[in-house]
Amino acid sequence: MPKPIVVDTYALVKWINGEAGYSGYSEFLTSPSWQRIITPVTLYELKLAMLKKEAGLDEWVASLAFTKQICEVRPLTESVMLRAAEIKFKYMAESKINLSMVDSICVSLAESLDAPILTGDKGIKLVEEVRVLP
Q: Which one of 11, 64, 93, 116 is least enclosed by Cβ atoms within 10 Å?
């Protein structure tokens, strides 16, 4: 049975773009050993990243199709959203780590699933609630 892993947009974008230093994500993004999980806000952030790099419609459609093929898109629940607010507030107040709303949702989802997060995001790597890969 595949192990759940929450995939942050950072990891998806770096891997889709083939950026140097992110080939290690392949193990997590292609292996049947992992059940890759994202939320609709991950798709929002992916679309935003594609718009910022001025990707054409074909590139966006291909990125979306790839993402939805390898990842399960889970709906956001009230409990995940409310916990995300607590996580964001905790790190703003205690350590001045400014997690985005999307990052705090990612952490909250991973915590609720007892799953690691696949990311290269420096802010997420500093949170103590979840394990970060790679």
A: 93
